[in-house]
Design goal:
single chain; alpha/beta; TIM Barrel; 8-stranded parallel barrel; 14 helices; 8 strands
Length: about 325
Amino acid sequence: MTSKLDQLRNYSDVVADTGDIEAIKRFQPLDATTNPSLLLKAASVPGYQSLIDQYAGELNHSSTEADLRRTANRLAVAIGSEISAIVPGRVSTEIDAHLSFDSEATVNQAKEIIELYSARGISADRILIKIASTWEGIRAAEQLEKHGINCNLTLLFGFGQAQACADAGVTLISPFVGRIYDWYKQRGEAQTDPEQDYGVASVRRIYRYYKTHGYNTVVMGASFRNTGQIDALAGCDRLTISPALLEELSSDSGELSRRLRPDDAASDDAKSTLDESQFRFALNEDAMATEKLAEGIRLFAADQRKLQQLLIER
C-alpha cells in the first residue's frame, strides 16, 4: 500500500504550508504558501541567513516604518523566489496584515509584490497574493483579479466570507480548519471524531456551496491540527499542510478514501450575494469567525513587526 500522502495526491492538490526549503524539496508539493509567522520561522533557518543579512544591511536604527515594511516585503519576495524555483506551481505571498482594512493600500502592495517578482524573472501567473478575508481585503482582491493578479483569501472562518470571496471572483480561498477546531475545543466541545469536527464541517459546507452553484474559486483547506482532519477532506480542491503532518501522512500506509467529489456535491445553502452590511452582520453573528479573524490579523501583524525588528537588530 502506498502512503496516505501519495494516495491524497490522487484526490487533492497538495500544497506545503511552510517557508522551509528543505521540507519543500522533500515533500515535492504542487504549490507552497507562506505568511508572516512562517517567514519569521524561516528567518532562523541556516539556508536563509545570507538573505537575512543582505536585507538587514539596508537598514539602520533611523529607518522609518515605511522602510521596514518595504524591506520585509522584499525579503518575502526573495524567499518566495527561492521556493518558486522548487515548486512547479504557485507561491502565495502575504500582504502586510496592518493593511487588512485598507483596500487601496492592499492593491498597491500587491502590485509592488508582483513587480518585485517580475524583476526576478517570475511571472504573475506563478504568484498568489494572500489577503485577509475582511470586506476591504475582498474588495481589493476583486480589483486585483480584474487586472490579472490572482489572489488567495486567507484567515477565512465564516460562511459569509466564503460567499463574498466567490462573488468577487477570487482565484482561491484558504478556510482555516485547525483554528476553528481550536475555538470550539477551548469551549469544551469535544471533536475527537473528524465527522464532528467543526473545522472539517466548515470546509465541506463551502466546498458543496461552490460546486453546486458553479463557482470557479478553488477551495484549499488550511491550518490542520491532525491528519484525521486531512483524511476527512480528501478530495477538496487543494489542501495546504505543514511539514510535520506531511511527514505523518508519508509514514502512514493505511487506506485513504476520497471524501469530497464535485459531482456529488449538493448544497443546502441557496446562492446569495452579500452587500457590505449583510457581510458585516453575518460575520458579527458568527462569534467564532469574528474572534478568529481579529486574532489572526493581530498575530500576523505582531509577527510582521517581529520580523522587522529582527532585520533591524541584524
